[in-house]
Design goal:
The protein is built from 18 helices and 19 strands. Helix 2 packs antiparallel against helix 9, helix 6 packs antiparallel against helix 9 and helix 9 runs antiparallel to helix 10. The N terminus is likely disordered. By secondary structure, it is an alpha+beta fold. The protein has 3 domains: 152 residues, Sandwich (Immunoglobulin-like); 193 residues, no CATH class; 146 residues, Glutaredoxin, CATH 3.40.30. It has a 5-stranded mixed β-sheet with strand order 5-8-2-1-12, with no helix packed on it. A 5-stranded mixed β-sheet has the order 13-14-16-15-19, sandwiched between helices. A 4-stranded antiparallel β-sheet has the order 6-7-3-10, with no helix packed on it.
């Protein structure tokens, strides 16, 4: 645990000095933003020579400064995360064998939390947990109660230069994943924008719009300039849309909802409607009066007129772009942070780029393929993809509730039917309402049909237990199936040095790897003590994509699987398990004072947050029977050798 080093330093300090140290004093004040919005400001005054640490510190470092606010049953709404000023990053050897760079504050530190009060409330209570160190020793972790008097609020004027992204410790791995995730969202959105560009609502607009700019402009340079402004306006409109979603729901609100049952059900229905629209059942259009009003504004000319022309394009093409934009916003918003903004930036860039390029080189217009039935084909293909994605959201809801209605075989059967039907459509065996008659199929359509058919055939063995590594992130895990070991098999061979025919209380064999696993912390720890093996805690989730990738792509490798089967006791704790706790096990929440922990997943999520200062999954911990870490925990580790090395070092350090 992180505070072990701190306690050791504290003990050594107290054996040398009889003085009791209290180097940090706290005071509070309140600033009023609007009628119901306030800034709660916590100010730490730090004695000379001492340091208070940031909310974001490295693993195995000091206890981070963290704030818990009482929401008084929902009367106080906590908006965003606690902000802190810019600290000083210095190297210290107080923590870790080799030392580390840690951000800290000297003399004074200010922390701001924005809140909204939705009822009668004069005071808000909170507490701060922190520790302080000088060059030789540290104080023990300490909690101080804070009180904020809203009746004494002054006009808001305090500003923070640095916005801390979370109260919990963020590992370097997670930061890398976040950056990589944003790039992935950008490129997915970019290619989605390119797909939208090839739909009947957008593609014909390219030559029309570019010709308008080149003919109406007094010079070629003016035409290029106007087309570039047009493209920038398109980008601005969609980025504003992404910004609005982020501002409306908050940077992390939808991320927290990503495993919510209702969230997944609503977006299953939404994507289902989008898919049916793309397949030709009906069109989703905005009110025609909107387009009329926008067209009038576009006649004004100048920059404003060009902007309204771009807005007119967005409205007119909504029946094609709306479902794609909606899907992107759902996926991006579920990632949290600025992902919706990045998604809309990628999407709009793909839409806007052709207008600027063809305006600069109008001769290229002659090389564009003519509009025709192929545009509707693109739209239909997108409809099939929307339909397949919709069932991923329905699967998430089923997994969280553990209903076993949409188990792995059923999910794969649905996808096989969808992509098999898509192949038949591309081969011309099926016609939909808006398709043009044809006596042959193009090479491009034939190629897409073969690709869809290949993918369909690839998924077929999954019905009999094949791992399907290419799509491991989408279907339910192999153990969430009617036949976890494959049809006709009870096991995939033992491969284990132990006989698990008589399973201990609370244990099960995790299919298809045949790993002895527990889903209860206490029962798993007790069994580990009994058999004399170290414990591996797997903080996971039923709807966790990277968890499934690890289980199917990394755990399945022989050298890793051998360790998991024979050398450790696995305890898998599902943080999104919505099954209620037994009445006797309902307890008070530490993170949310006054609230009850009612669900199994809440218990494991709070355990991970409090003990390991993180809430991301997957998260793996190797510990001994005294619940002390054998090695630093790790998060998502897609490299087999790196993960095996972590396992081996942890197990070898077990006594």
């Amino acid at each position: 645990m992180k505070f072990i080093a701190s306690i050791l330093i504290l003990f050594l300090g107290f054996t040398s000095f009889s003085q009791i140290y209290d180097p940090v004093k706290w005071e509070t004040k309140v600033e009023k933003i609007s009628k119901n919005e306030f800034n709660l400001i916590s100010i730490a005054t730090i004695d000379k020579g001492w340091h208070l640490y940031s909310q974001d510190v490295p693993k195995d470092g000091p206890i981070p400064t963290s704030f818990i606010y009482d929401d008084d049953g929902g009367v106080v709404k906590i908006t965003g995360n606690t902000q802190e000023g810019e600290g000083t990053i210095e190297f210290t050897k107080l923590f870790g064998e080799e030392g580390m760079d840690i951000e800290h504050f000297s003399n004074k530190a200010t922390f701001i939390q924005k809140i909204e009060v939705v009822g009668a409330k004069n005071k808000v209570h909170a507490f701060v947990e922190f520790m302080a160190c000088n060059d030789t020793q540290c104080t023990p972790p300490k909690e101080v109660d804070l009180e904020f008097d809203l009746t004494k609020a002054t006009v808001a004027k305090t500003k923070i230069e640095k916005n801390n992204t979370n109260q919990e410790v963020k590992t370097k791995t997670k930061n890398k994943e976040s950056r990589g995730g944003l790039w992935a969202i950008f490129f997915i959105a970019f290619f989605s924008g390119f797909a939208a560009l090839l739909t009947p609502c957008v593609f014909p607009m390219i030559p029309m719009t570019v010709s308008f700019f080149t003919k109406q402009s007094k010079s070629k340079g003016a035409g290029i300039r106007n087309a570039i402004i047009y493209g920038i306006s398109i980008i601005a409109i969609y980025v504003l849309l992404g910004t609005g979603v982020t501002a409306l729901f908050g940077a992390d609100a939808l991320n927290a909802l990503s495993t919510n049952v209702w969230f997944n059900l609503v977006f299953f229905l939404l994507l289902l409607i989008f898919a049916v629209s793309f397949l030709g059942a009906f069109e989703i259009v905005l009110p025609s009066s909107w387009g009329t009003k926008i067209d009038k504004q576009a006649d004004r000319g100048g920059f404003i007129g060009i902007f309204f022309m771009a807005l007119a394009l967005a409205i007119v093409s909504f029946s094609c772009t709306g479902p794609i934009v909606g899907t992107l916003l759902v996926e991006a918003a579920s990632k949290g942070g600025i992902a919706p903004i990045i998604g809309m930036l990628g999407f709009s860039t793909a839409i806007a780029l052709p207008f600027a390029l063809f305006a600069a080189f109008p001769g290229w217009l002659n090389s564009l393929p003519k509009s025709g039935g192929w545009l509707n084909t693109v739209k239909v293909v997108l409809g099939f993809l929307e339909l397949a994605l919709a069932f991923k959201f329905l699967s998430n809801a089923d997994l969280v509730l553990q209903l076993h209605w949409l188990e792995r075989e059923v999910f794969l059967a649905i996808w096989i039917a969808i992509f098999g039907t898509l192949a038949l459509y591309l081969f011309g065996k099926i016609r939909l309402p808006h398709d043009s008659p044809q006596d042959h199929i193009s090479i491009g359509r034939l190629s897409l049909g073969l690709l869809s058919l290949t993918f369909t055939i690839y998924m077929l063995p999954g019905l009999w237990g094949a791992p399907l590594n290419l799509i491991s992130a989408f279907p339910p895990a192999q153990h969430y199936a009617e036949s976890p070991y494959g049809v006709g098999y009870s096991k995939l061979g033992s491969g284990s040095s132990e006989n698990h025919d008589d399973l201990p209380e609370g244990a099960h064999l995790m299919a298809p790897h045949n790993i002895l696993a527990f889903n209860d912390y206490d029962l798993g720890l007790a069994y580990a003590k009994k058999v004399g093996k170290p414990v591996m805690i797997d903080f996971t989730g039923h709807a966790c994509v990277n968890c499934r990738k690890m289980e199917q792509n990394i755990w399945a490798k022989d050298k890793v699987l051998n360790v998991l089967r024979n050398d450790v006791i696995l305890i898998s704790l599902y943080v999104d398990d919505k099954r209620p706790l037994p009445n006797g096990k309902v307890i008070e929440s530490i993170l949310r004072p006054g609230k009850k922990i009612k669900y199994i997943g809440q218990r494991w999520s709070e355990l991970q947050t409090i003990k390991y200062k993180t809430n991301s999954q997957p998260y793996y911990v190797l510990m001994d029977h005294n619940e002390q870490n054998l090695i630093d925990p790790v998060a998502y580790t897609p490299d087999v050798d790196e993960y095996f090395d972590w396992l081996s070092k942890g197990v070898s350090s077990f006594e």
